[in-house]
Write a structure and sequence with these properties.
79 residues, mainly alpha, 2 helices, 41% helix, elongated
Length: 79
């Protein structure tokens, strides 16, 4: 990663602290073990009218084709 900190140790992350078992090794983003309890809390707060809530999920169609064409490093760059 050419001198950059690995994603899991970035200090500028918008996500609250999560231990290494709760982060994706490649992207450093929280994984399901981290997100599920937090999403449940956000949904509860929203249903109580305490704060609005919106969730955006993205699915990359045919992502396997990117890794097959450009290799693992190319696929990592796409992510």
């Amino acid at each position: 990663m050419s001198g950059k900190q690995p994603p899991s140790t970035r200090q500028d992350s918008p996500w609250p602290s999560a231990d290494e078992g709760q982060r994706d090794d490649l992207t450093g983003l929280p994984n399901r073990r981290y997100l599920v309890p937090r999403l449940q809390d956000l949904l509860r707060r929203s249903s109580e009218g305490r704060s609005p809530f919106c969730l955006l999920m993205v699915d990359v169609d045919h992502f396997k084709r990117a890794t097959q064409t450009f290799g693992q490093v190319g696929g990592d760059s796409v992510l």
